[in-house]
Design brief:
There is one protein chain. The chain is an alpha+beta fold and 327 residues long. Helices cover 33% and strands 22% of the residues. The chain is built from nine helices and 16 strands. Strand 12 and strand 13 form a beta hairpin. Helix 3 runs parallel beside helix 4 and helix 7 crosses helix 9. The longest helix is centred in the C-terminal third of the chain and has 20 residues. The chain is globular and about 60 Å long.
Length: 327
């Protein structure tokens, strides 16, 4: 951690600060830690925390390789600590409301789920996350690409349908290489199709009327966007079923539902948009620890999402559809 940033946090929150994670683990009596270091360092930090008997929330992606992710899960099991996976999208109020509607059967059987993020400031404006996040030459790319962002949607595809992803085809960006269009097409065991398309090195083709007033903070391919403001390119997820469809503006905190009779804005969504959904996630973790319950989102969920994304890379390398046999 940068010394000046550490001093800012210490002064702002009246806490003790450490530049060495092991020193913190040695000297503090911690209930759990949140691992928010770059993905390439997740395994080292998680395994270290596990040896001190501390429960762990690990940000997405769980790791950069299947082997690292499996080793992290094994280390936590051996140490008897809980490993929570940072699938924070599950705690966004609009996403939670969509899940409730799906579970009530309002859409019928899910047939299609989609997200695309296309835009930015051209190739010159593209910013790779770099080798400290994702080792050069391996899966990586930008902050709204397949590896760093799309992995959220892969988790939602599994959660919305209540089934595993069984086949994958796609293509992902390589850390340190020139970016290209990324895509992932997945099929679940229930027959639903999930489609992701990302390109952060071009320009949006959205027209002005496609924007929305957003309750929460957000990001688009050109950068962060403030809360309580008009967003020209709002992130959104489309879910289609046999009886109805949803368009979920998860950061704007709005949902539109369409069936054979109507299109409506869905009422009753909790006013707890980004970034306040992280507090909902933390409350769920504290509840699990206090009540000695299993995590709502486990390390295995993180491993399964990672396996699907890595399968898209394998698909492009082999020019074939990949069948998933989850660990």
């Amino acid at each position: 951690m940068r010394k000046e940033r550490l001093e800012q946090m210490v002064n702002a929150y009246a806490i003790r600060g450490y530049q060495d994670d092991e020193e913190m683990l040695k000297h503090e009596n911690l209930d759990f830690v949140s691992v928010c270091v770059p993905a390439a360092a997740h395994r080292e930090v998680v395994e270290k925390a596990a040896t001190y008997g501390v429960h762990i929330l690990c940000e997405k992606p769980l790791a950069v390789t299947r082997e690292d992710a499996a080793a992290m899960i094994a280390a936590c099991q051996e140490a008897g600590v809980k490993l929570f996976y940072g699938a924070s999208y599950r705690y966004l109020p609009a996403i939670m409301k969509a899940k409730e509607m799906i579970d009530k059967g309002m859409l019928g059987n899910i047939s299609l789920m989609m997200e695309h993020v296309i835009g930015g400031n051209g190739l010159e404006g593209f910013r790779d996350l770099g080798p400290h996040h994702y080792p050069a030459g391996g899966p990586g790319g930008g902050g709204l690409g397949l590896m760093d962002h799309g992995i959220h949607l892969v988790d939602l595809f599994r959660w919305f349908t209540g089934s595993e992803i069984v086949t994958v085809a796609g293509r992902g960006n390589i850390s340190g290489a020139k970016p290209s269009t990324e895509y992932l097409t997945a099929t679940t065991a229930t027959g639903a199709t999930g489609i992701l398309i990302y390109n952060e090195a071009t320009f949006s083709s959205d027209i002005p009327t496609e924007g929305i007033f957003s309750e929460g903070q957000s990001w688009d391919a050109s950068g962060p966007q403030p809360a309580h403001a008009w967003h020209k390119h709002p992130q959104n997820i489309r879910v289609h079923g046999e009886k109805g469809s949803l368009r979920i503006f998860h950061y704007a905190n709005k949902i539109y539902f369409t069936d054979k009779d109507k299109t409506i804005e869905v009422p009753g969504i909790e006013q707890c948009a980004n970034p306040f959904h992280f507090s909902s996630q933390m409350r769920a973790i504290v509840r699990c620890i206090r009540n000695q319950q299993e995590p709502e989102v486990t390390g295995n969920d993180g491993l399964k999402a990672l396996e699907v994304v890595l399968a898209a890379y394998e698909s492009y390398e082999t020019q074939s559809m990949i069948r998933i046999n989850h660990s």
